[in-house]
Amino acid sequence: MQAEARHHHHHHHHHLTKLFVFGDSYADTGNVQKSVSTSWKDPYGITFPGKPAGRFSDGRVLTDFIAKHLKVKSPIPYRLRKVIPNHLKYGMNFAFGGSGVFKTSFPLPNMTTQIDFFQQLIEKRVYSALDLTKSVALVSVAGNDYSYYLATNGSAEGLPAYVGAVVSQTVKNLIRIKGLGVKKIVVGGLQPLGCLPSITVATSYERCNETTNALVLLHNSLLSEAVSKLNKRSMEPSTFLVLNLYESFLSVLKQKQKDPSTHHIGNKLKPCCVGVSSGYTCGDVDKNKVKMYRVCDDPKSAFFWDLVHPTQAGWHAVYNKLRTMNTLQHIHFDHA
């Protein structure tokens, strides 16, 4: 009887979809160490959970909305896996803000290393093959490889070839995650980088940079092509899905004010939290601990939180767009 009861309990546990997350700050929920990241400083996290908690936003990020969609709790950051072990049943978040598919400026685990962490947990039987039968992976590639390339004097002529390299490495990563037993893999297409405040500050947040967005479109078309090839080879229907963050970001940014789902977002290109003078960014304080940033009156009325990251309201609006674009219904499992 004892054994049977235990088995029954286990069976129930596997009904839960697990979410495994890889990538960067668009998906990180607290992996980057406090000593190196603004995501642990005020005013990050003021909307949710009410204090800085390692998310690069005033509140929830893409991971949280995808978890909500799958009806599970947001998976625990890898860094905290020993601190809150009872949360392992929802999956795990391996994303590190600032990382890329290749090496970036910080000594952070890139995506290959993040997948190594995942593989080690499977080898240690933290997750079994049965655990993975209802698993989804979210893979965020939001452009750190490109900012690193440009910051380290990569030439503009070399960019198209580099885009090809980033996409092909991303695809290798997707194949590897599937090989570890994950059933559905959702990869973010690149958002319109030319609309990020770090770029639009040059036009006082008035206009997106079309040259930058052309690069994004190249990345996204290569990614979509590669993913549809993978799906043709795969036996199961739509194992791999691309989240069209380009269209969903743009449609929110271009939306007329009347749509209630965007919560009256005002100048959509202007960030809510900015440094008060050059050299300072959101969260910075000077040597006397004086705040060197300004925060808008209502983060719900801004799409961007800081120079690169959406607010919780921004992510919510993007998530609503993704739902209306019908991308997301393919990541559900029919609960048997």
Automatic annotation (TrEMBL):
Pfam families: Lipase_GDSL. Keywords: Hydrolase, Lipid degradation, Lipid metabolism. GO terms for molecular function: hydrolase activity, acting on ester bonds. InterPro entries: GDSL (IPR001087), SGNH_hydro_sf (IPR036514), SGNH_plant_lipase-like (IPR035669). One of its GO terms (biological process) is lipid catabolic process. Belongs to the 'GDSL' lipolytic enzyme family. PANTHER family: GDSL ESTERASE_LIPASE, OSJNBB0059K02.9 PROTEIN. This is GDSL esterase/lipase At5g03610 family. It comes from Cajanus cajan.
